[in-house]
Amino acid sequence: MIRVLLADDQALLRGTFRLLIDSCDDMEVVGEAADGHQAVELARARQPDVVLMDIRMPGADGLAATAAMCEDPDLASTRVLILTMFETEEYVAQALRVGASGFLGKYVTTDALLNGIRTVAAGEALLSPGATQALITRFLTTPASGPPLSPAARLADLTPREQEVTVLAAHGKSNDQIAQELVLSVLTVRTHIQRAMTKLGARDRAQLVVIAYQNGLVRPEPPSL
Question: By residue range, what is the domain housing residue 97?
């Protein structure tokens, strides 16, 4: 059972999301928060698998709440899925940098939302859509202010196969696609991803991709003319 915490300042939307999520046999809503501070407090109390997080909320916004959750060792197993009307490139970049595992606009279909929650809960990242891939290529190589994302990241510690798999993940390919391209089993690909995450200090697949771009393992493609 996937335990989901809802963080949105609009009660009507929270109610709608609760109905959708609770109608599924494999997930349940374990709490609702109307602002970022409450979201962090409830996450620590309820230990959800996934937090469905809005960005613009009163008080602490969704980005601040996401950063607080991702920096908390007691919430190491909690994943954050950003869901917002304001799907700007800057917001997506900031969300991934502070540790979010995915980013969806509120216009998504019901199936896309529910599958997104399942994807993030499974440790994957919502990085495959074309718009998000374009964002990664454009923004994640830009140094962020403050300390490095992962001071302990050492690309040289990766085996050639781990580097190869990481590069393909950074280009937005799913485990199934990577397995097909490299003629490997999906389980083997997942193992390589997990080992790369451990060596680079990445808490999830999204952060692994950020590290790969920011440390030069993957280079942005030149814009098409």
Answer: 2-138
The tally of domains found in the chain comes to 2
End-to-end CA distance of the chain: 47
Q: Are residues 29 and 56 in the same domain?
A: yes
Output the pTM of the full model: 0.69
Which pair of structure tokens corresponds to residue 124? Answer: 């994957």
123 and 86 in one domain?
yes
pLDDT (tens place) for every residue of the chain, 225 residues total: 999 999 999 999 999 999 999 999 999 999 999 999 999 999 999 999 999 999 888 888 899 999 999 999 999 899 999 887 765 666 777 777 788 888 887 778 899 899 889 988 987 766 545 445 555 555 555 555 444 444 445 778 899 999 999 998 887 777 888 999 999 998 999 899 989 988 888 877 777 877 887 777 876 554 443
Classify residue 12 by burial, with Cβ atoms within 10 Å: 0-12, 13-18, 19+.
exposed
